[in-house]
Amino acid sequence: MSVASFVLQLLNSLAAMLLLLSFAMLSQRRVVTLVNFLALQGAILCAATLLLAWRTGEINLYLSAALTLGLKVIFLPWLLHRLIRRLDVYWDTDTLLNIPGTMLVGLVVVVFSFGLAQPITALASTATRSAVGIAVAVILLAFLTMITRRKAMSQVIGFLSMENGLFFGAMSATYGMPMVVEMGVALDVLVAMLVLGVFFFQIREQFDSLDLERLESNEEEP
Amino acid sequence: MVFLVLIGSPLLGAVVMMWFGARRWAPEANVLFSAVTLLGACAVSARVVVEGNLTFLHDQFFIDPFNIFLATLTAFVGFTTALFSRPYMRIEIERRHIAKRRLRLYHSMYQMFLATMLIALTTNNLGLLWVAMEAATLSTVLLVTFYQTRASIEAGWKYFILCGVGIAQALFGTILVYIAAEKVLGAQGVNALLWTHLNAVKGQLEPRVLSLAFVFLLVGYGTKVGLAPLHNWLPDAHAEGPTPISAVLSGLLLNVAIYAVVRCKVLVEGSLHLPWPAQMLMGFGIFSVVVAAFCLWRQRDIKRLFAYSSIEHMGIITFAFGMGGPVANFAALLHMTVHSLTKSAIFFTVGHATQKSGSQLMDGIRGLVTINPAVGWGLMIGSLVILGMPPFGVFASEFLILTTAMREQPWATPLLLIALGVAFAAIFGRVQPMVFGETAAKRLPHPPALIPIFLHLTLVLLLGLFIPPYLAQWYRAAARLIGGG
């Protein structure tokens, strides 16, 4: 087997692992584990980017991999773990839909994503274009995670997982966005998480809980 | 150089205010930074009048007829809102609604918000546009939760998560545009996301990918525009923050979001040559107008009332851009301008009115004319203007939109007319007892900022009577650029 096809195989299996992790996140109720899955997803994304960078020799991709490593594998999981400990939110048990039901919807979502990715896959000229479908699936599964969860923390983790999917999609279809944009996006994510840290404390101070159910008091009816 | 003043002044302001934002002179410094920004904007527009379209910093930023008037408008309303916020925030502090040190956050984020909007408006790079839009959300989230009440934190959370998810869809759309553009403009091109470059080759972009991209971009940026059914965050966010922030959110941020949608629509339409992107805009627009008009009836909070009115007007603008063609586009651009001026003026009066009566509930606000005639009449006139009374500018633009709709999209005319009628009855019926009627409220410790209110309303009146030739020329050129119809 040639090196090129081996690398491609490796990239495809990394993509498969990303998808698997998305499903794992969909069913996981322990928030700490959820954060660990997120970190693992970041690590896989980073590995895939590095592999692709080595294969294509794009400097941009090395930088992007470094960015992913610093932000999504190290800093954000650390921040989230800290928040979980300080805020004492370990479980997110009551989901909107039970776990098997969520998984079934997830399966439909994956099939739908591959359909959606068809025109993109047809257009892209990169060797990794077949992974675009997986990227779309990761994005939509993260969306599903956000919809079915009640705790603010799990929603944020879903949001970050969506961001991972977006980066993976950009990487597999075009070998990454222009550097300016990637830096800007990373900066936004970073600031968003810092704002979020402040936010969580405000929520807890006012509501004694991070349960979003209680956050529905703004009424409009007379 | 002048361009750097426009972007640099609010950025510098944000940094300076981070340290000195709570000093006694901070509100004045806030006004000063905004004034410098406005001067920068005026200088840039003067150059555009003389030299035509401009690009800056290796094509990363550009000025054309579509964004120049929006940038100037943003700088102008940013300046007048800073004037308004000076007495408003002082009163808030004296009444101990907020601690004085929190003004650092307020002033710094205010300047940051202006900077992000100006970057979003002037950037040529669709990726940077996304980054700036997201940054605009982030800089205002903590201002929405500024009072740290339960309702404000709920509003802030909704704003953060709904706009965050929405804008993530827009990022996916942007990536899709990049995928299509890379095919035409060359691999790894830093230019592949530049709008001017894309616009030049839009006929060659792969239509299937772009149509997919447009759905994501419309849903993404449409969330920020507050198009129904994605509008849930908007009334809460506009009602719970300090009123100066409501004024800029309603008057400016929504405009910037519409601007992003229209920029994307131009590219997609050029690639597709099909009517459905325009039809989607029209559908979302009409739906928002109708939903907002009927929601107006159920409101008890004055700021929520006018937030829903913003949704209604954003719907009208989106609908007009959907119709396309020189007249409808012209009217939509005019409507963006006059809505922004009027709505911020209304929020200024609302701010003073709520401070006087100590309540945002409309039942608690009475007899503004007797305590402070200027504020009372300001609210009355402002409401009549936003409801489309002649001879103000809102009447002119709505009239143009309606007559075009009668000719091009007759099915929409009754819906629009009913919605406008319902909105008129709802808002006028609520405002009338607030302005006239009996009251026992006392005067405010600081004189209210009246200049911004009447300056805005005068400008809207002038725009209704006479549009300056260069402005009309920009509108026409921008309308041609947007095309459609």
Describe the structure in your own words.
The complex is a heterodimer of chains A (222) and B (485). Chain A has 222 residues and is mainly alpha-helical. Chain A is built from 7 helices and no strands. Chain A has helices at 3-27, 31-56, 59-87, 99-123, 132-148, 152-174, 179-207. The termini of chain A are far apart. In chain B, strands 1-2 form a two-stranded antiparallel sheet. In chain B, a hairpin with a 4-residue loop joins β1 and β2 (61-63). Chain B is globular. The mean pLDDT of chain B is 89. Chains A and B meet through α4, α5, α6 and α7 of A and α5, α6 and α8 of B.
Work out the radius of gyration of chain B: 21 Å
Mean pLDDT of chain A, rounded to whole units?
83
Could you tell me the strand content of chain A as a percent range? under 5%
Radius of gyration of chain A: 18 Å
Helix content of chain B: over 70%
**How do the helices and strands follow one another from N- to C-terminus of chain A?**
HHHHHHH
How many beta-strand runs of chain B? Answer: 2
So how many helices of chain B? 19
How far is the first residue's CA from the last residue's CA of chain B? Answer: 38 Å
The assembly state of the depicted protein chains is heterodimer
SSE pattern of chain B, N- to C-terminal: HHEEHHHHHHHHHHHHHHHHH
Q: What is the molecular shape of chain A?
A: globular
Structural class designation of chain B: mainly alpha
Biggest sheet architecture of chain A: none
Question: Which band does the percent of strand residues of chain B land in?
Answer: under 5%
Which class best fits the helix and strand makeup of chain A? mainly alpha
